[in-house]
Structure formats: structure tokens, C-alpha cells
């Protein structure tokens, strides 16, 4: 069974699969920057669609473009000086961690995560439950938003951007690459020289 939901883009979140998710603070990417990134992606996808490549090459080109788009998206978040950076506050990062761990072994099996100053990378294996995973993610974000806004003295303001990025992990090799990507995010951003020195990362035992 596959579970679909849609905001701006369709999401496929199948139970039993491992999913890489990135969600970010509201306002962490200016609308003009996000529009530019999306337009660049759409132009590239149209060019791929108009090419004479066979179906296998086309599928690979589309996947490569999606990876390029995400890399640009994530790099902007890592280097952004403007916008909110609430997650660098230790007490708020702790709220995020508590929420993530609270659903482990219930809605998903937690594999890895990294909490940056304005976004979160999360890798989970979705369990078969009575509710679709997008509701779990909505609940997870809602819990942390309520408690973080209370701590910050904010009312009536969005904490998280509604839209999240998700990608179904295709095989074990990709799983290993994504784990490395998540853990090395603070290293790549120049915050630490070893991922284990970052206080807001997690890796499940046995990985």
C-alpha cells in the first residue's frame, strides 16, 4: 500500500519503507529564492522531457535534477544569515529531539537525524499503523511548534514551513549515503570538524 498526500507537490510515503525527510522553519527561505530554485528545476525537467533520451536515461536525468535541486535548497539553508534560526537554541533543539524520539517504535523506527539551526533532516522506517505517515509528521511538527513558540513567547505565528521534502530510500547503498549526508551536514556547514561533536545528531545503534 502507498499513502499519498499533497500540498504543493505529491508525496509518496509508503509504510514499510525508509524515508528521508527534511523540514524547515517558516520563513527560512525567502519566497523569491524558493521560486528561483523551483523555476530552475522546472526548466531542467522540461529540457529532459524534450530530449531524445530513452526511458532509462530520462529517469536517471530526472533523479539527478531532483538531487541537484535538493542540494541547492539545503545549501541555502546551511548558509542563510537571514530568517529564523530558532533551532540553535539548545532548549528548543531539545523539544525537537523529544518529539522525534516520542514516536520511535510506534509510528516509525528512527534511523538518524540532524537538527540544524533552521531545518531538520530525519531518516525513519515507517511502520504499518492506523494513520498515514503525513499525519504523524504533522503531529510531530505541531507538538514541537506549540512548545517552541511557548518558550519563545510567540503566539499566532507559524513555526514550521508547511511543506516538507521527502524521499523514499531505494536501496542499502542509498541508505548509507543519506545517513552520511545527514550526519555530515554540520561538518559541511563548518560548525564542527566531526559529526560526533554536534550535540543535535543521532544515529541508531547497529548502523
Query: Terminal Cα separation, in Å?
Result: 27 Å
What is the residue-mean pLDDT, rounded to a whole number?
Answer: 91
Level-2 CATH architecture of the largest domain:
2-Layer Sandwich
Order of secondary-structure elements: EEEHHHEEHEHE
CATH homologous superfamily placement of the largest domain: Transposase IS200-like
User: How many β-strand stretches?
Assistant: 7
Total helical elements: 5
Shape: globular
- Would you give the CATH topology of the largest domain? Alpha-Beta Plaits
Give a short account of the largest sheet: 5 strands, antiparallel
Strand content: 15-25%
**Could you give the order of strands across the largest sheet?**
6-3-5-4-7
User: If you compute it from the alpha carbons, what radius of gyration comes out, rounded to the nearest whole angstrom?
Assistant: 17 Å
Helix content: 40-55%
Number of separate domains: 2
GO biological process, one term: DNA transposition
GO molecular function: sequence-specific DNA binding; transposase activity
Domain Transposase IS200-like: 76-185
Protein name: Transposase
Short characterization:
This protein has helices at residues 31-49, 55-79, 90-102, 133-152, 172-188; strands spanning 4-6, 10-12, 18-24, 108-115, 119-126, 165-168, 201-203.
Amino acid at each position: 500500500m502507498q499513502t499519498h498526500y499533497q500540498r504543493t507537490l505529491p508525496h509518496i510515503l509508503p509504510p514499510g519503507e525508509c524515508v528521508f525527510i527534511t523540514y524547515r522553519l517558516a520563513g527560512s527561505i525567502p519566497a523569491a529564492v524558493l521560486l528561483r530554485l523551483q523555476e530552475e528545476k522546472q526548466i531542467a525537467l522540461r529540457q529532459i522531457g524534450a530530449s531524445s533520451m530513452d526511458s532509462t536515461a530520462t529517469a536517471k536525468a530526472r533523479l539527478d535534477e531532483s538531487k541537484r535541486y535538493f542540494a541547492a535548497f539545503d545549501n541555502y539553508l546551511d548558509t542563510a544569515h537571514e530568517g529564523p534560526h530558532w533551532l540553535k537554541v539548545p532548549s528548543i533543539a531539545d523539544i525537537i529531539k523529544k518529539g522525534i524520539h516520542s514516536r520511535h517504535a510506534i509510528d516509525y523506527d528512527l534511523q538518524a537525524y540532524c537538527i540544524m539551526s533552521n531545518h531538520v533532516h530525519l531518516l525513519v522506517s515507517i511502520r504499518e499503523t492506523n494513520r498515514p505517515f503525513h499525519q504523524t509528521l504533522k503531529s510531530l511538527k505541531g507538538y514541537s511548534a506549540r512548545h517552541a513558540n511557548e518558550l519563545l513567547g510567540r503566539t499566532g505565528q507559524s513555526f514550521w514551513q508547511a511543506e516538507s521534502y521527502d524521499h523514499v530510500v531505494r536501496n542499502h547503498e542509498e541508505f548509507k549515503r543519506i545517513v552520511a549526508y545527514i550526519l555530515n551536514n554540520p561538518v559541511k556547514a563548518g560548525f564542527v570538524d566531526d559529526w560526533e561533536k554536534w550535540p543535535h545528531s543521532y544515529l541508531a545503534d547497529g548502523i
